[in-house]
Amino acid sequence: MMPHDRPSEVDETVRRALELFASGFNCAESVLMALAERWGVPEENIPAVATAFGGGIASRGGPCGALTGALMAYGARGGRREAEDIETKKAVNEMAERFIDSFAREAGSWLCRDLIGLDLRRPEDKDRFKAEKVRETKCPRFVKAAVEIALSSGKQQGGIGVGLPEKISPGW
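The structure assignment produced for this chain is given below.
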């Protein structure tokens, strides 16, 4: 942990993300909102920007919504604001690659369909998703992992934040 990211602060952010998830927000919305709150990112369009990202982007099984929510939080906090800012774009993309790698190591994949073992485009898998309570039994683990990785130190997660501008290196 970075000195300013005490375990209780990480635990509180994880708790908040899981609380939001349990209340009905999707994985991307929950992680984005909890990290945005933690980092003081204005909420004007949060969670609206993350709505289509749950279930691996519109329930298509692509990148996990918890992962995309964390990446959106990083962008909201410290992404580039000008097209000419190539340095920030490069730093954010490098950070995103490290984050995705860390998430995949922790969770087993970075793709929703692999993580939950279902293809939500198929009616029978949508039925299984509900019947097996996948949202309640599997997905919270991925929400938790995304928040913990986002708030963990670079040293603990293979150097994710090394070389990033301070504005986008929030505690790693």
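Interim note for the steering committee: Helices lie at 7-22, 27-39, 65-78, 86-107, 112-116, 123-131, 134-137, 139-151. The first helix runs from residue 7 to 22.
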